[in-house]
Amino acid sequence: MSALTRGRAGPVAGGEAFTDLQRREIAGAVRDAELLSGQHLSVYVGPAEADGRQHSERLHAQLPDPANSVLVHVDPRARSIEIVTGVKARYALDNRKAALALLTMQSAFATGDLARGLVAGLHQLGTLARREQSLHTDTP
Predict the structure, then answer these.
(1) What residue ranges in the chain does DSSP mark as E strands?
(2) pTM of the model as a whole
């Protein structure tokens, strides 16, 4: 099992696999979200250990730049989604914003569309984690 980082798709629980098109769509959503937000986004689809949150946090800690990273971990068998944000990433993506993206994913997953749910959630994460641009400058 490995994290699906920087748009790489990997295993899905139950032996199912994403199609090539779905992998490209997920990879594109990761890239788009990273460009919008300035954060590193990773996706892991696969089983979690007994405590899904702790497992997700361990996966997040293994990322190259965990402080500036956001990990989305989906365990289809357990029907769970975890979003882990790094210390610095949390400034742009707080729990409330992450919960909105989680609800978007849950809605799509409820219809059985894992890939579309991930793509929609990633797009929303990228939009919500966008850094605010200041309208004020020090120059007159």
Answers:
(1) 4-5, 40-45, 69-75, 80-85
(2) 0.82
